[in-house]
Design goal:
This protein has 93 residues and is of the alpha+beta class. It has a domain at 3-40. 31% of the residues lie in helices and 16% in strands. A 3-stranded antiparallel β-sheet has the order 2-1-3, with no helix packed on it. The model has no long low-confidence stretch (mean pLDDT 76).
Length: 93
């Protein structure tokens, strides 16, 4: 559900209201009681995805996932070889 910004055209009071999209606009100002509320256009908040989904790789083919795992495994073995003391000593000699 989105949050809407409202401003009273009579007293200038501004506030936010958490409403469903299907709810009617508010018309009465909670401060002065006049029927002069205007719903403001805003950028709103970004979409927030919670949980373990919604990643680009979630819907990839199984062949792509296997190739990505193989590529990741080969890069980690390469980096562990270069970080060992024996390889560093041989490289500097």
């Amino acid at each position: 559900m989105p949050t809407y910004d409202y401003e009273c055209q009579q007293c200038g009071h501004t506030f936010e209201k958490f409403q469903s999209i299907t709810d009617e606009r508010l018309k009465k100002c909670p401060v002065c009681g006049k029927l002069r509320l205007k719903r403001l256009l805003g950028t709103g908040a970004g979409v927030i995805f919670k949980g373990s989904g919604f990643y680009q790789t979630d819907y990839r083919s199984s062949a792509y996932k296997q190739a990505a795992r193989a590529d990741g495994a080969s890069s980690t073995t390469h980096s562990s070889k270069t970080s060992s003391g024996k390889d560093k000593a041989a490289a500097s000699a």
